[in-house]
Amino acid sequence: MKMDQEEIKRTFTVLFVEAFNSEKKRSGVLIKKKEDNTVHVHWKGAAEMILAMCSSYYDASGVMKDLNEEERMEFKKIIQGMAASSLRCIAFAHKQVAETEEEIVKEKKKLKEENLTLLGLVGIKDPCRPGVKNAVEDCQSAGVNIKMITGDNVFTAKAIATECGILRPGHDMDSGAVVEGEEFRNYTAEERMEKVQKICVMARSSPFDKLLMVQCLKQKGHVVAVTGDGTNDAPALKEADIGLSMGIQGTEVAKESSDIVILDDNFASVATVLKWGRCVYTNIQKFIQFQLTVNVAALVINFVAAVSAGEVPLTAVQLLWVNLIMDSLGALALATEKPTKELMKKPPVGRIEPLITNIMWRNLLAQAFYQVAVLLILQFRGESIFSVTEAVNDTLIFNTFVLCQVFNEFNARKLEKKNVFKGIHKNKPFLGIVGMTIVLQVLMVEFLKRFADTERLNRGQWGACIAMAAVSWPIGWIVKCIPVPERPVFSYLKWKKRT
Q1: What's its membrane topology (predicted)?
Q2: Whether the Cβ atoms of residue 204 and residue 186 lie closer than 8 Å to each other
Q3: Which of 5, 145, 260, 484 matches a 20 to 30 Å C-alpha distance to 199?
Q4: Rounded to whole angstroms, how far apart are CA atoms 243 and 245?
Q5: Local structure of 19: helix, strand or coil
Q6: From CA 46, how far away is CA 206, in angstroms rounded?
Q7: Would you put residue 266 in left (φ > 0), alpha (ψ -120 to 50) or beta?
Q8: What DSSP string runs through 433-488?
Q9: What residues pair up with 39 in beta bridges, in sequence order?
Q10: Is 9 exposed, middle or buried (0-12, 13-18, 19+ CB in 10 A)?
Q11: Helices (runs of H) and strands (runs of E) counted in the chain
């Protein structure tokens, strides 16, 4: 409108400012015009809140008119129309007050809030960022229930939630998917616990409402993540299991109260956090399965051999070597697996679900039993089967045991999928570490006789070791065809104790 903002500011003196309040949804200022010393109060904020404070308005010609009920309803329709178009509707109002008002305001610290004149309404478009809808869909397909908690009015909130994909057609206030903060706050504790699951959008909410919802969801056993950027969001961010604050628009208080700071303020990053979090969790499970298989097999073979023959086939140096390649190299190999799309199709892990699942027990026990069986046969019948000395037989046991772990490392890549080689060409560190392990094992057997207490093996013996170790692949494939119950194994023991 070709107005000079700085010029206008110089013609007024600011007497008092009432900052924006998340409960009142408005802010105001008391100013004195230098030209004639008249005092004015100005308000801006949520359109329906400002409209309720007005008793008159200016028409298009600038003429002041009384705001009757008919006109008030007309303005409400305009506000609802803007909100339904996902516009954030803001209203402006003012009133000229007596000069004595300055003293009253300074004493009460409160501006005049009634009989104002409505100046105008503005609809501000705050479009969803590109990729937000896809990110919401990714989170929903991963079993994450997204809820939008906003200070906007219910019509704006519904429109934005529908645009983002949080709210689906047919979800409305009657179905319980959309509520206002005051309504949620006034529920009894039992009603809140009953209805919190269905709520997708909470409009006109206060920071306390956000905190209340987080507490309710946690009480129902959910793992709760909260995003926020304001100082008022700090209690909810702290209360949540995972607090995510915004790196650009977020306040320092919000960042300090959160666990993760999203540097680009983009919701799509939440889906990335979810994907990588699941990847790390799955990689830990893979390593635990792999490590337990090694430990069970080594413990059983050494224990049985020690009890029956009085000697152990695996020496201290050999066990140290096994632990080195399994703990260090094995962890590195399995930890380098990158996230896949399949991770986002799995349901989330519950708060009390065990780290070692039934699927992991099935896989590791099958491999451990096979390794124990092969090593015990070699321990008691290896010398006669291969017509070798005791020292060579012990080397065969050691070599077979290590190669079994190398082959089983491939099985550990996929806990449920039968094709353990899918995407392996993309994981160069895994292939490099496996290759390094094989090279070091050859050095241990063939060249470090005195250090490792081993004997050299011929081609036939190497072939036999590799063949016995390679059987772990078909065993892994067959075992994954066996269904397992969803209920954790150890929960049956607890149930028996109770009965």
Answers
A1: Multi-pass membrane protein
A2: no
A3: 260
A4: 7
A5: strand
A6: 14
A7: beta
A8: HHHHHHHHHHHHHHT-HHHHT-----HHHHHHHHHHHHTHHHHHHHHTTS---SS-
A9: 32, 97
A10: exposed
A11: 21, 13
CA distances from 314 to 435, 461, 472 (A): 23, 18, 21
CA distances from 414 to 198, 215, 377, 404, 472 (A): 35, 36, 29, 17, 14
State the chain's mean pLDDT as an integer: 86
- In whole angstroms, what separates CA 395 from the centre of its chain? 48
Using an 8 Å Cβ cutoff, are 257 and 237 in contact? yes
CA distance 234 to 227: 10
The answer to whether 455 touches 397, Cβ cutoff 8 Å, is no
Q: What band does 283 get if pLDDT is binned at 50, 70 and 90?
A: very high
Distance CA 336, CA 328 (A): 12
DSSP code for 38: -
Tens of pLDDT, residue by residue over 226-254, are 998 888 889 999 999 999 998 888 889 99
> What percentage of residues in the chain have a pLDDT greater than 70?
97
Longest dimension (CA), the chain: 115
Nearest CA to 397 out of 330, 329, 288, 311 is that of 311
Q: Collapse the DSSP code of 54 into the 3-class scheme (helix H, G, I; strand E, B; otherwise coil) and give the result.
A: strand
The answer to whether residues 270 and 135 touch, using CB atoms and an 8 Å cutoff, is yes
Please report where in the chains the tokens 């009634």 appear, as a residue.
114
Gap between the Cα atoms of 227 and 235, Å rounded = 12
pLDDT digits (tens, 9 = 90+) for 338-376: 888 888 888 888 778 888 889 999 999 999 999 999 988
Query: Measuring CA to CA, which residue among 71, 57, 40 is closest to residue 119?
Result: 57
200 within 8 A of 161, measured Cβ to Cβ: yes
Per the CB < 8 A criterion, the answer to whether 476 and 411 are in contact is: yes
pLDDT at 490 over 80: no
Range list of β-strands (E), 207-348? 225-228, 242-246, 260-262
